[in-house]
Amino acid sequence: MRRMSQTFLDTLDTPAAIVDLDRVERNVQRVATYAREHGLRWRPHTKTHKTAELGAMQVAAGASGVTVATVLEAEVMASVSDDVLLAYPPVGAHKLARLMALPSRVRLSVALDSHEALEGLARAAREAGRTVGVLVEVDLGMRRVGLRTPEETVALARAAASTAGVAFRGVTFYAGHIRVPQAELSAAMQAQAAALATFVGALSHAGLPPEVVSGGSTPTLWRSHTVKGLTEIRPGLNVLNDRNAAVIGACDWTECAYSVLATVVSTAVPGQVVIDAGSKALVKEEGLAPGYGALLDRPEVVVKNLSEEHGLLDVSGTEWRPRIGERVRVVPNHVCVSVPQHPRLHVVRGDEGVAAWEVTARGW
């Protein structure tokens, strides 16, 4: 029996995070083109990939800056962008000190929703001799963070505009509660636009017209232009995409650029295949379809359950029966939580390995 030639993927220990560079490049160009055609600034959220190389690729393609969720992400992404938005209120002297230590060339902005966070930020900025932009976060239905009334928003914006060390630049929101099929998006986007207009209108009436109105997500990305007044979009996971995005039609399955390479380790239970990628590699997060992921080249084969080191594939509805030792690639439900479980991303074009990118911002 002739032995098949070994590919790059065969040389990797599993589980391993794999990034398809051809797909990434197409994903990046698609959103860059969309933003340019609709006159929107594109500030990708780098919490998805936490990788300097991918951030640099997005900036090179036309991103106006980057969005980060942690101070560590800000420190890493400051190496590839001079314009950083921390979309999370920095609370605590240590975090503020690290934030103020970013290079002076970085135009730093922070999203917040409280006078307490504003006062701490302003004090740290004054002590560091810099001015930090403030985006007041408003709640358009997510019910996580953000001010819920125009009156509160105006009061916080006025405080930011009159406090040394900070400068009021606008408002931000995240509509992460909108995760519906693309065909059902119209009503949700109309409601979002109407709610946003009340906040922007109140600010303008108070003499505080927002320079920046920042929002967007991957599920709503391709309808962002229908939200009147929006100036900036912050999609994150669309650079890699995942099973959830594909389920709702925010991307095609062929646009899923991230997968976890795993090895078949057991076929003892009928109708089931066990792989060596469990919850520590894929993360046990329920998605918008049953299971915790699906095979990249066989999306009908679903990860039906996860233990820490075991992934259970349901093969009861297919004739595919892999051998022990066979390799598979799993697209997880949610890419943003899977990536930081891995120290590096193995980058491929087809079967050829072209790079290994450290997930430098994966810690706290």
Topology:
Blueprint: E1 16-20, H1 21-37, E2 41-42, H2 52-60, E3 66-68, H3 71-77, E4 83-86, H4 93-100, E5 107-112, H5 115-128, E6 132-137, H6 150-161, E7 166-172, H7 185-205, E8 212-215, E9 232-233, H8 243-247, E10 258-266, E11 272-275, H9 279-282, E12 293-295, E13 302-306, E14 311-314, E15 327-332, H10 335-338, E16 344-349, E17 352-358
Parallel strand pairs: 1-16, 2-9, 3-4, 4-5, 5-6, 6-7, 7-8, 8-9
Antiparallel strand pairs: 1-10, 10-11, 10-15, 11-14, 12-15, 13-14, 16-17
List keywords for this structure.
alpha/beta; 8-stranded parallel beta sheet; 17 strands; 23% strand; globular; 9-stranded mixed beta sheet; 28% helix
The gist of it:
With 364 residues, this protein is of the alpha/beta class. It has helices at residues 21-37, 52-60, 71-77, 93-100, 115-128, 150-161, 185-205, 243-247, 279-282, 335-338, and strands spanning 16-20, 41-42, 66-68, 83-86, 107-112, 132-137, 166-172, 212-215, 232-233, 258-266, 272-275, 293-295, 302-306, 311-314, 327-332, 344-349, 352-358.
Account of the 3D structure:
By secondary structure, the protein is an alpha/beta fold. It contains 10 helices and 17 strands. The protein has helices at 21-37, 52-60, 71-77, 93-100, 115-128, 150-161, 185-205, 243-247, 279-282, 335-338; strands spanning 16-20, 41-42, 66-68, 83-86, 107-112, 132-137, 166-172, 212-215, 232-233, 258-266, 272-275, 293-295, 302-306, 311-314, 327-332, 344-349, 352-358. The strands form 2 sheets. Strands 1, 10, 11, 12, 13, 14, 15, 16 and 17 form a 9-stranded mixed beta sheet that branches. It has an 8-stranded parallel beta sheet with strand order 2-9-8-7-6-5-4-3. Helix 4 links the parallel strand 4 and strand 5 (107-112). Helix 4 packs across helix 5 (115-128) and helix 6 packs across helix 7 (185-205). The model has no long low-confidence stretch (mean pLDDT 97).
